[in-house]
Write a structure and sequence with these properties.
By secondary structure, this protein is of the alpha/beta class. A 7-stranded mixed sheet has the order 1-7-6-5-4-2-3, sandwiched between helices. The protein has a 5-stranded mixed sheet with strand order 8-9-12-11-10. The chain is globular and about 75 Å long. Bound molecules: pyridoxal-5'-phosphate (PLP).
């Protein structure tokens, strides 16, 4: 089955009982037993299993070419579940410019309870090898990264991880299963903040995990049920609905994104444009090998905090907001918003300057978006 078809027909989203084409929202916490322990279809209590959530979990498992999917109340709950596979004393090697909230939970929560992390540039193989110790149990990467869109070679990283018996986790939020399938490249677990492209409409906060390893699936399922950060039925329904248009949203977004990248490349105020299509030859080759697209995230440098602030204020179709991956175009200044929790010195080391602006391209008419950018830049010049 090809990808667009799978987004409509994948998983088990048609209701077994009624034939309802859209999965019913099973707004129930518990299930009637036909005698003690005599469950219908294995449903006992909705933290453990809920039919609407099961529909979503089977769909995302198919889309990521895995066997088991798991839905959580946020991307961070999914990240935390992955870390809970480890024990106190274990160590994780983490990509240096992972999502700000991921950096925060690793350094401020899991570090405190005994799971230590080392942050390294995962585009640098030697750096990754050097960071691995006898205690290392997991390699956690995000590609392309946020907000500078650097690309890590997933297959190469999974190979290094296998040599050391590490679990490889890939945050695939930016690429989505439409453009990239990390399990096919050797990753053990794929993670999504489904709040972004998968939901796609800025109306749900959710996280997803997928694996094709039976043992990992059992352990993740155990933690999901024990810790309990599960996604509710209404939100599960909204994600199944969002996924149906994921492919066409990604295609439209990417077309417009390439037009905007071209416009920014010819803009005098902009000093640097970051998008996977703009990478050097070696990185570009990796991206083209492991993904079928470049995605809809662009960052660019306008030179100063003042110009960045003035630009975001003057635009009318780019909503100033955190988050990304929605039908509406969003704009942010990472140093003051998504990455504000990272100390300034560290931010500058990572290349997240005060004049860096990030946009998440929506599916509006590209002519309108380009016109808006033109008037915005005219206003700050
Ligand atoms: C947003 C985001 C997260 C966290 O997800 P939430 O749904 O906000 O908890 C993790 N990784 C990436 C890449 C993200 O963009």
């Amino acid at each position: 089955m090809k990808k667009k078809t799978m987004m409509i027909h994948g998983g088990h989203t048609t209701d077994e009982f009624t034939g309802a084409v859209a999965p019913p929202i099973y707004q129930t916490s518990t299930y009637k037993q036909d005698g003690i322990g005599n469950l219908r279809q294995g449903y006992e209590y909705s933290r453990s299993k809920n039919p609407t959530r099961s529909a979503l979990e089977s769909l995302i498992a198919d889309l990521e070419h895995g066997t088991d999917g798991f839905a959580f109340g946020s991307g961070m709950a999914a990240v935390s579940t992955v870390v809970m596979l480890l024990n106190a004393g274990d160590h994780i090697v983490v990509g240096s410019d992972v999502y700000g909230g991921t950096y925060r939970v690793f350094t401020k929560v899991f570090d405190r309870i005994g799971v230590k992390s080392t942050f390294v540039d995962t585009t640098d193989e030697a750096a990754v090898r050097n960071a691995i110790t006898a205690q290392t149990k997991m390699l956690y990467i995000e590609t392309p990264t946020n907000p500078l869109l650097n690309v890590t070679d997933i297959a190469r990283m999974a190979e290094i991880a296998r040599e050391h018996q590490l679990i490889t986790v890939v945050d695939n939020t930016f690429m989505t299963p439409y453009f990239q399938n990390p399990l096919d490249l050797g990753a053990d677990i794929v993670l999504h903040s489904a709040t972004k492209y998968i939901g796609g409409h800025s109306d749900v906060v959710a996280g997803l995990l997928v694996t094709k390893d039976a043992e990992l699936a059992e352990r993740i399922g155990f933690i999901q049920n024990s810790v309990g950060g599960v996604l509710g039925p209404q939100d599960s329904f909204l994600l199944v609905r969002g996924i149906k248009t994921l492919a066409i949203r990604m295609e439209q977004t990417e077309r417009t994104t390439l037009e905007i990248v071209d416009y920014l490349n010819h803009n005098d105020v902009v000093t640097n444009v970051f998008h996977p299509s703009q990478l050097n030859d070696a990185q570009l080759a990796i991206q083209q090998r492991q993904a079928s697209g470049f995605g809809g995230m662009i960052s660019f440098d306008v030179g100063s905090k003042e110009k960045a602030e003035a630009l975001v204020k003057s635009l009318k179709y780019f909503t100033l907001a955190e988050s990304l991956g929605a039908v509406e175009s969003l704009i942010s200044v990472p140093s003051q918003m998504t990455h504000a929790s990272i100390p300034r010195e560290r931010r500058l080391e990572l290349g997240i300057t005060d004049g860096l602006v990030r946009i998440s391209v929506g599916i509006e008419d590209s002519e309108d978006l380009l016109e808006d950018l033109k008037q915005g830049f005219a206003a700050i010049q």
